[in-house]
Amino acid sequence: MKFVNSIKRLSLKNNSLSDAGVAKVTMPCRMFGVGLKLLTSLDISLNPAITDKAVRYLGKLVSLETLNLSGTKVTIPGGVSKLQDTRNLFLTEQVSA
Predict the structure, then answer these.
(1) pLDDT tens digits, residue range 23-66?
(2) Which of 25-58 are b and which e, b meaning 16 or more Cβ less than 10 Å from the residue's Cβ?
(3) How far separated are the first and last CA of the chain, in Å rounded?
(4) What is the pLDDT of residue 83?
(5) Distances from the Cα of 41 to the Cαs of 21, 61, 69, 72, in angstroms?
(6) How far apart are CA 43 and CA 87, in angstroms?
(7) What does the alpha-carbon distance between residue 50 and residue 26 come to, in Å, rounded to a whole number?
(8) Phi-psi region of 6 (alpha: psi -120 to 50; beta: other; left: phi over 0)
(9) How far apart are the C-alpha atoms of 88 and 32, rounded to whole Å?
(10) How far is Cα 47 from Cα 69, in angstroms, rounded to an integer?
(11) How distant, in Å, are the alpha carbons of 25, 28, 37, 49, 71 from that of 31?
(12) What is the pLDDT of residue 94?
């Protein structure tokens, strides 16, 4: 799985991803300092099961510059404020149908 170390952009948009899924995707980087270390752009938009809980995992992606959280349940006071180093953050309010 050495290829994971070289991923710079990743889209998991509209993928039924949850907080637990974000934890699993970021685990190698968080726990062992490997995998997704070079990730600069992550799109996890349109995954309404992602909440403020996932932000603590995303904060461990130290190279992350662009993050799309549109269509998730991440809030500004609860989660976004913890992503200080992310340069480009996209967040739109979830629209109820």
Answers:
(1) 999 998 888 888 888 899 999 999 999 998 998 888 888 888 88
(2) bbebbbeeeebbeebbbbbbbbbeebbbbbbebb
(3) 40
(4) 63
(5) 17, 10, 12, 17
(6) 14
(7) 14
(8) alpha
(9) 26
(10) 8
(11) 11, 5, 12, 23, 28
(12) 52
* Nearest by Cα to 39 from 11, 20, 16, 13: 11
Distance CA 26, CA 67 (A): 14
Q: Say which residue the tokens 């637990």 belong to.
A: 20
- Residue 89 bridge partners (DSSP): 67
88: which DSSP letter? Answer: E
Under 8 Å between Cβ of 65 and 41: yes
Position 9 scores a pLDDT of 94
